[in-house]
Design goal:
The complex is a heterotrimer of chains A (about 325), B (about 425) and C (about 290). With about 325 residues, chain A is an alpha+beta fold. Chain A has nine helices and 18 strands. In chain A, the strands form four sheets. A six-stranded mixed sheet of chain A has the order 6-7-8-3-9-10, with helices on both faces. Chain A has a five-stranded antiparallel sheet with strand order 13-17-14-15-16. Chain A has a four-stranded antiparallel sheet with strand order 2-1-4-5, with helices on one face. In chain A, β1 and β2 form a beta hairpin. In chain B, α2 links the parallel β1 and β2. In chain B, the strands form five sheets. In chain B, strands 1, 2, 3, 4, 6, 10, 15, 16 and 19 form a nine-stranded mixed sheet that branches. A four-stranded mixed sheet of chain B has the order 12-13-11-14. A two-stranded antiparallel ribbon of chain B has the order 5-9. Chain B has two domains: about 200 residues, D-Maltodextrin-Binding Protein, domain 2 (3-Layer(aba) Sandwich), CATH 3.40.190.10; about 160 residues, Periplasmic binding protein-like II (D-Maltodextrin-Binding Protein, domain 2). With about 290 residues, chain C is mainly α. The chains are: A alpha+beta (about 325), B alpha/beta (about 425), C mainly alpha (about 290). The interface between B and C is large, with 40 and 38 residues.
Amino acid sequence: MATPAPLELIAVTKRYRATLAVDAIDLRIPAGTYCCLLGPSGCGKTSTLRMIAGHEIASEGDILLGAANITTLPPAARGTAMMFQSYALFPHLSVRDNVAFALKMRGIDKATRHRRAGELLELVAMSAYADRLPAQLSGGQQQRVALARALITEPQILLLDEPLSALDPFLRVRMRAELKRLQRELGISFIHVTHGQEEAMALADLVVLMNAGRIEQQGSPREMFNRPRTAFAARFMGGHNVLRRADQQIAVRTDHIRIAPTHALRARVTELEYQGTWLQANLALPDGETLIATLTEQQFDAAPFGAGDEVGIAWDDDAAHPLV
Amino acid sequence: MKPINRRTMLAGTAATSVALCTPAIHAAEPKVLRYLGTAVNEGDDISKKCLADTGIKIEYITATTDDVAKRVITQPNSFDVLDTEYFSLKKLIPSGNIQALDARKIKEFNNITPVFTKGELPNGKKIGGQGTAPWKVLYLDGPKSTKFSPTPTDYVTLIPTVYNADTLGIRPDLIKRPITSWAELLNPEFKGKASILNIPSIGIMDAAMVVEAMGTYKYADKGNMTKAEIDLTMKVMTEAKKAGQFRAFWKDFNESVNLMASGETVIQSMWSPAVTKVRSQGIPCVFQPLKEGYRSWASGFCVSKGVSGAKLDVAYEFVNWFLSGWAGAYLNRQGYYSAVLSTAKANMAPYEWDFWMEGKPAAQDIKGPDGSLLEKAGVVRDGGSYNDRMGNVACWNAVMDENDYMVRKWNEFIAA
Amino acid sequence: MKLASNTTARLQALPLALVLAVFFLLPLAMVIMVSVWDYNEYEMIPAWSGRGYSDSFEGCLAQLPELCTILRTYAETVKLCALVWLLTLLIGFTVAYFLAFHIKSRTLQIALSLLCTIPFWTSNVIRMIAWIPMLGRNGVVNQALQALHITKAPVEWLLFSEFSVVLALVHLFSLFMMVPIFNSMMRIDRALIEAAYDAGASGFQTLRDIIIPLCKPGIVIGSIFVITIVMGDFITVGVMGGQQIASAGKIIEVRVNALQFPAAAANAVILLGVTMMIIVGLSRLVDIRKEL
């Protein structure tokens, strides 16, 4: 496929009339990266993706792909391809014709484009369905077709808009693995918009967490999870308690909270949930702050307690990350 | 011919007249007649006057000429009195849905203009009898017969009420020279500015008048052509149509008025009140007398076979009232002619009679029955007097024996 | 379960089916029956006769290669119908496209659609009479053309011509084409158009490869409306054609008015047959049931 190239966003801004959707973000995505744009709805992640795709034009700033400034180019001239949230397969065209569509638009002859479509269908293991109409496929099959259709133009970057949100949880996990495998095999960048932190961590080389039109934090999944920079990041990535200590906020992973009768910091157990691998204890501090502790079954059995009990809690100093 | 497509206008009028008549409650059983007909005799004024004079309430059922005939044949019990034209009798009488009226019960029967009874003017002059002339279909053999009698009997099919002589209407301001012959309709001078009406049975007779006037052919009876004659007539018309002689054909009253008033046509077959309407818009229009004569039509009252007993008496009373003068004067003032001239004359001012019937210059402004100004003082009626107009009738509206063939040929002509 | 829901569905369809049977199928059956009756000057004779049909096709073989009346009439009607269909399709599609893809506000879409119904705000008669001062010899258009020195003499073919017939019909029936196409367009997922754009399709390619195929059901339904109405029309053709243009509907009207009901019925059956053939041909292009 095409030579992978890095993508760079420089002070990219998107305004819809008075609303500021994306606020001067800078982002560099190295070639061959699986990048997840993560954030709550309305954070600007979809607008960012659409600006990269060329379905929206940035109000300000530049988008560079390799050496080329693609800020105002039409989608097909950018070296990007997009896979739409609902897949947007053409309902009147067969799977083969859907996949071959972009080549048909380029005026490539039927035999060639059908051969190429066949190759891509093979790649996504959909060769057997080439003659079907999209309505005759399951959700997962539709997604594979949509992938094949997007990839036929040999893009340097594949843009995926919440690709897994339409699937049931079981299929979602399976497709997730397949996306990752494909990205690795093709060696190109995938930019994947999602609001699921778990999905982002499972897939991404680079997680970009967005909030209110800005990039809140970016980094590898481990960095993101272990070193949340802000309270928002800590809460969004999950698994953290955000606590106010003296004049600053700190984040402590829920599994780094230790519970024992002897600890000085007293807390009351408001709820206790058994979750198999874990037990989750909801705790209330005397000043009203609440926090969550997760324990292994082993840890719990060593010092069992019940809802309503008063317990002592503690955490190591290096487990507490100061937040800005 | 009469305006057949004023349905919209007159349906409203009829409804009003019924509504207005409703409050008049009579001690005896209300005398009601269901009156099926076209627009020409149906008017608010006539039904109101009739109610006032006789206590008979008229319920109008208004339809086009064609629809009236359809209704007589398919629903004879849906009406009591039928207002129709003589030519339709050839279709209606054989159906047995019309009952013969007793001439002895019609008070003014012997005063009906001899145009109907003998085919001659009151002064004895014979008039043209081609087509379905009224006197050919006025009498039946017997009370229950469906056969016409060539000689007078007491069994009358249709009591005449109103008639007229039709000719071409022209725009003198656009033609700017005298027009004296039906042949002018196909004169290339008026290419793209002529029209005839698209009702086959009437249109073909106008066409026949033209063919005869051009000297192309002389018909034995324009109202009853042979197949060969139909072919010949339609050939002449088709050639003219292909040459672009006709601007448009017209089907209803308002179309004919619009064509003339807008100048789209300058010469066309037309009906007398349509000419009046064009003129009332301030546009010059003449109902032009032509040397070959007029095509005439006449209509009157039939009674449905379903009417008997007291209802039949009411029907006779109504017919007698209609001939007693007021209605006749009313029709004369619209430019039609009434069947009993003497009673109508008694109901008109002398100057009106002189203008409408004697062909004399109007001594004062001539007004229609509704009071609108029709002609200014000094004007002479187009075509002149009753004797001049009815005396020059060449043929009568007709249904031909070869009607079916003629209709098909007419369709062919339209498709050409 | 399946059986029960089937029965319910059938019961629900029953009232409409009855209405259709009584007011459509029954009269239609009677028309077909009457079309093979005999007739005389004033009545139908309930005895088998092919006269209604044989009269209609009189001379069709003998006159060959020249067309007989009915064939010429149908050729004319089909020609007018094809022209009107093509123009209403172009106009209806364009207007629908504009409304569906260029007007973002739902309210404005509805308001503009209502504008398209303006031709129906006046009665047929008034509307058609109003064409005379517009297109007539001394009408607005001719006066404008002469004032602008485009023509010296009035243009005669503006009125009482095929042109005016087509104009009046297109003016009336573009709406019938526009509405179903608009409906089809509103059902198109906007993401499909983006997807096409993403794949490098130009505006024209998107129109040809995505929008038009997906509008086919609307196009077919609109076409059925327009074709059935225009094939049977005789009033507009009559008035705007100055009664000089034959139409299939006119043949029927003339026959009815001459009290030749069996002949009229025969012609109605012929018209029905021709119209059905056109519709069936069109429907083959698409499975209408998908749209309903």
